[in-house]
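Technical annex, item 7. During the second reporting period the consortium partners agreed on a shared format for inverse folding records so that results from different sites could be compared directly. Each record opens with the tokenized structure and is followed by the designed sequence. A conforming record, contributed by the partner at site C, is shown below for reference.
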């Protein structure tokens, strides 16, 4: 029993060679040659617990993205490609179908068939390489008063300039410096903690901590908006959300350009997010007394037969109440760290590594001690019945039908990430990147890495036609599908051939450099 299992050793060797240990088998049909084969595609996992090799690649990709965009010296230019003939024809055809649908509606006819045609055309328009919807926003956005709260300090506002680059500083000898910022923002205290664990769990405000975690992503959006208003230019950022030891999410943000430290702290202190949702402080249904579903009606009280208000009705009632207060107001804590960083310095590299340090781990993966496990269990319990979104089934507990309500919903059974122990209330994206950060998409950064490898291996980097291949999933038990162990070994052998080829090319290049040096010396 002390001998290692051969399969586990194979997986360990695969991880050491950067091979995906959870490959996805797909059947690929080449429409040009007619060749059909089964290929393994990396799973693309972002967490080490899923696949260490894919998580490492994704982390390195994010580090490259952060490094390339942090200290840009030239304005990024993002110009959409001109519309093709096919795209213009699709939009013209969509306009014709819209006119026919409107004519049928004016004549009092049933438009369900026309609506289905329009939905299909919208899908074709997106598949043809166009973003968004031709109709834009069709549902009016709810707008509440934007007047600042009386308990929030005012912020200065500068005239906006059309640039994403920060200020530069020139020394007397003509050297130009382009500093940037590294900012860390945290949530407020919910009670005294020691080693990440509440000293008194009974007085620790778990309810507020849960709501702050659920709405943390909205608070970050408000901070960016305020930052741009005060800075006076289109501030670009690369940020990551990580857990503190006390399990609350906090933010690390690389910001292009610089502002006075006192000003950044003032912005953080003045930033808040108000949650204008129906009240969920009074529990109306619990235990066995739960709302029941009735087809064509929705959820109703099983005792009185009263239909619960829908999500839109509950918001309408909230809008009509002049004395209504927000359900929750989330703010940053007093601890704000602001650090100036120069391009190409060890500090910049250290900050980039720190930004990507926890990206391969889940928010709840840092829990190790028994006390922290108990603390996490209490935190997850506080999240159990906390509504995380308008569609959360937990609204039934408070007498409101969730948005898009359907049969089978029950409080405490929401499938959102916010309620899962590994996410600890935060359901947003772990990596936040502004649109003009590096002037490249993540796919383009990945293509840069692929180009470098192919050039190093001496292979042609020819663009492939995306319509050349047809991909289909391979069902388990397919006779053409080799066992996972065999596929892992094949991938390891292929990766070893690549590395051997790269070492050979490096040796040749090194020998040529030495020869050139010897000739120059002679």
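Designed sequence (site C submission):
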């Amino acid at each position: 029993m002390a001998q290692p299992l051969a399969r586990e050793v194979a997986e360990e060797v695969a991880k050491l060679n950067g091979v995906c240990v959870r490959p996805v088998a797909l059947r690929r049909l080449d429409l040009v040659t007619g060749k059909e084969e089964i290929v393994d595609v990396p799973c693309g996992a972002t967490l080490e617990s899923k696949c260490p090799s894919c998580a490492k690649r994704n982390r390195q990709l994010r580090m490259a993205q952060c490094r390339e965009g942090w200290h840009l010296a030239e304005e990024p230019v993002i110009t959409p490609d001109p519309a093709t003939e096919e795209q213009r024809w699709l939009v013209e055809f969509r306009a014709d179908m819209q006119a026919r649908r409107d004519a049928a509606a004016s004549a009092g006819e049933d438009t369900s068939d026309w609506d289905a045609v329009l939905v299909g055309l919208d899908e074709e328009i997106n598949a043809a390489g166009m973003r968004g919807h031709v109709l834009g926003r069709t549902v009016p956005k709810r707008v509440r008063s934007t007047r600042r709260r009386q308990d929030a300090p005012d912020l200065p506002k500068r005239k906006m300039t059309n640039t994403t680059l920060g200020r530069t500083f020139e020394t007397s000898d003509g050297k130009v410096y382009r500093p940037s910022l590294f900012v860390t923002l945290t949530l407020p205290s919910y009670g005294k903690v020691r080693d990440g664990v509440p000293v008194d769990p009974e007085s620790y405000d778990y309810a507020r901590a849960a709501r702050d975690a659920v709405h943390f992503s909205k608070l970050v959006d408000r901070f960016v908006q305020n930052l741009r208003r005060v800075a006076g230019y289109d501030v670009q950022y690369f940020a990551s959300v990580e857990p503190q030891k006390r399990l609350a999410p906090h933010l690390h943000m690389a910001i292009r350009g610089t502002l006075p430290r006192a000003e950044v702290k003032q912005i953080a202190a003045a930033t808040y997010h108000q949650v204008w949702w129906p009240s969920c402080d009074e529990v109306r249904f619990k235990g066995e007394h739960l709302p029941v579903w009735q087809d064509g009606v929705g959820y109703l009280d099983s005792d009185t037969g009263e239909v619960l208000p829908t999500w839109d009705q509950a918001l309408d009632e909230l809008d009509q109440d002049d004395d209504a207060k927000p359900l929750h107001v989330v703010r940053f804590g007093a601890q704000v760290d602001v650090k100036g960083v120069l391009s190409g310095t060890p500090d910049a590299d250290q900050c980039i590594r720190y930004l990507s340090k926890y990206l391969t781990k889940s928010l709840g993966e840092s829990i190790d001690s028994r006390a922290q496990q108990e603390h996490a269990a209490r935190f997850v319990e506080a999240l159990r019945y906390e509504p995380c979104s308008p569609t959360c089934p937990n609204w039934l507990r408070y007498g409101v039908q969730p948005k898009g309500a359907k049969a089978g919903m029950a409080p405490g059974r929401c499938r959102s990430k916010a309620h899962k122990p590994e996410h600890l209330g935060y359901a947003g994206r772990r990596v936040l990147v502004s649109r003009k950060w590096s002037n490249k998409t993540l796919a383009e950064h990945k293509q840069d890495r692929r180009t470098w490898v192919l050039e190093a291996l001496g292979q042609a980097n020819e663009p492939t036609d995306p319509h050349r291949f047809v991909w289909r999933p391979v069902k388990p038990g397919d006779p053409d599908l080799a066992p996972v162990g065999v596929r892992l070994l094949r991938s390891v052998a292929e990766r070893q051939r690549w590395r051997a080829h790269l070492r050979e090319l490096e040796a040749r290049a090194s020998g040529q450099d030495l020869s050139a040096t010897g000739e120059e010396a002679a």
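The first strand starts at residue 24 and ends at 30. Residues 517-522 have pLDDT under 50 and may be disordered. All partners now use this format for quarterly exchanges.
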